Known about the structure:
Helices cover about 80% and strands about 0% of the residues. It is mostly helical.
Amino acid sequence: MKPLRPIPQWEDHEKPTLPGGASMPWHPPGRRAAYAAVALLVAITGGLGNALITANLPWITGQMGLQATEASWLVAAYMMVNVSANLLVFKFRQEYGLLLFAEIGLGVYAVLAVLHLFVGSLATTVLVRAGSGFAGAACSTLSVLYMLQAMPRKYVGQMLMIGMSLSMLATPLAWLLSPSLLNYGEWQNLYLFEAGLALCSFAAVVVLKLPPGIQIKVFERTDFLTFALLAPALAMLVIVLNQGLLRWWFDTPWLGWLLAGALVLLTTGLCIEQQRRNPLLQVRWLMGSTMLRFIIGAFLIRFLTSEQNYGMVNMMRTLGMGPDQMAPLYAVILCGVVAGIAISALTFGPKALLPQLAASIILLGSAAFLDQHRTSLDRPMDFALSQFLAATGSGMFMGPLMLMGMQRALARGLDHIVSFVVILSLTQNFAGLAGSALLGSYQLHREHVYSSELISHTSAADPLVAQRLQQQQQAYARLITDPVQLKAQGTAALAAAAKREANVRAFNDVFALSGWIAIGFLSWLLLVVTLRDPRVRKFLRPEQAAPSSNRGSR
């Protein structure tokens, strides 16, 4: 492809790896440290806004006077745009350059973050969150590009691992910062902090620019047709996963129509891509056995992190814990994520990628099994060990996953990079959504089962039940004088306690299910690796080895 601008006379070690990437000239140590600081700032900026909304969603719901189904659109709007942004983001920076990409991405984010301070209705807030989804995708890319400048080229693998994982720091930081932000005002303080970070990041990328790269002509008209088909399809899938649990899957007909529409648009878009000479997505490659295994693996390992992001968090919320009580635990989780990123970078090597992924799965599965016997007396710091292990596993897997996929894409050609970037983003986003939706549905089902069992064994004739009812009534005796109302209040309190215990037992089942999924996933991974060993293949299919040896002897 012909460059759009003259290419500077770079030395071999300075040349960009890919069009759309930055060159890698020599930098003094101070400038390299500045690049690393900007990478950290941009990565946290890109993920912290959505993390703050997610961590404080029940509180924001009350402050804005919303229903749970309405408030969930704040998260859905961000994801609807974020999941499809990478369809065009990679090609945009290849054709129009890194400087314009950085300034537009962070400039839009800064403007939208400031707009958050002036909008009050649900509709306008949802629109602003949708725009932030695009900016968040731009921040994820910029953080990687800036981190690659922080060390000489020989450390590019380690820097790529760190850059890809930095966004995982956003969630624990959101939980740590939320109590302080909410103590001094209403929900607008969250947006004020987000706007400040966005403006700081915008200033940082303008002052400390990335080195120039290679710009080439990559956009075709059909790219926009594909985007017009796939983006709405992906947005519809996000809505189904986001709203399905709250509205229940089989009670809301329009969710079914959305799902059907998404399948039609997705199929049409992929069929068009398959017939193109220069497709945006390499459909045949993505549907091959090697990439299908990669897609399933990437989806499952992200799915396993839902044990922490959904299971632990919602169990604590069920027991009445909020950001104030959860902050110390998230300090431990933050340390775990940092430890995971450090381990993946320090042990980097071509032969270390699969062991790192296996270690990540083992840590996530171990955390799930450690949590499968929780009680209603447990408090956040009782989860410290298990969640530290889960956080370490979460911090470890993203870098190796990125490098393994990148190797496969580069082996097929530069035109396969866009497909890989898009599919990696989709697996991570949809696995997170599916994890919350499916584990939430399973937890709700098990809670109904346990509630039925507890109620069926609860009889006023039972001495223990009668004693508990009497204790509940005594607790309200000073407030309620009417005997009938007092008895009803005592019965309601006992029913609430039974529901709480049923929820705890259901969450234990969720933890156990996550653990068994991890065992199954690890077994599958080890089986695939074993079957790829030439010695194992020779043992299993000796008839294929015999002809080759005969040809060699002749």
